[in-house]
Amino acid sequence: MTGLMRLMLLLLLLLLLLMLLLLLLLLLFGGGGSGAGDNGVVVVISVGSATAITAVALLGITAVIAVAPLLFSLMPLWSLTYISYAKNEK
């Protein structure tokens, strides 16, 4: 495994850990204002939930973009040539 692949895996793991942390924070503190009497508190909690959901969605998209080149770099080139060869044989 080359240094670049190790770096990509490390960045991917860090992104996934950050996503899990944000999801945990969302589950713990993103109650949507249930039981809160003050309207200001309800608005703040709701905005916090929306922000956390947006951040998790953006991190998910970033993780997918980070994983795609890694998967293509791990796929051996001969399998791609074999697939194209098999298509031409039919």
Q: Concise description?
A:
This protein has 90 residues and is mostly helical. It has helices at 3-29, 39-74, 77-89.
Question: How is this fold's topology laid out?
Answer:
Elements: H1 3-29, H2 39-74, H3 77-89
Helix pairs in contact: 1-2
List keywords for this structure.
membrane; transmembrane helix; 90 residues; transmembrane; 3 helices; mainly alpha
Description of the molecule:
Helices cover 84% and strands 0% of the residues. Helix 1 runs antiparallel to helix 2. It is elongated and about 60 Å long. The chain starts with a helix and ends with a helix.
Kindly name the structural category: mainly alpha
Largest sheet: none
Instruction: Please give the radius of gyration in angstroms.
Output: 21 Å
Number of strands: 0
- Could you list the spans in which at least 5 consecutive residues all have pLDDT below 50? none
The overall pLDDT, averaged over residues, is 68
β-strand amount: under 5%
The total domain count is 1
The helical percent reads over 70%
N- to C-terminal distance = 36 Å
Question: Helix tally?
Answer: 3
Order of helices and strands: HHH
Question: What overall form do the CA principal axes indicate?
Answer: elongated
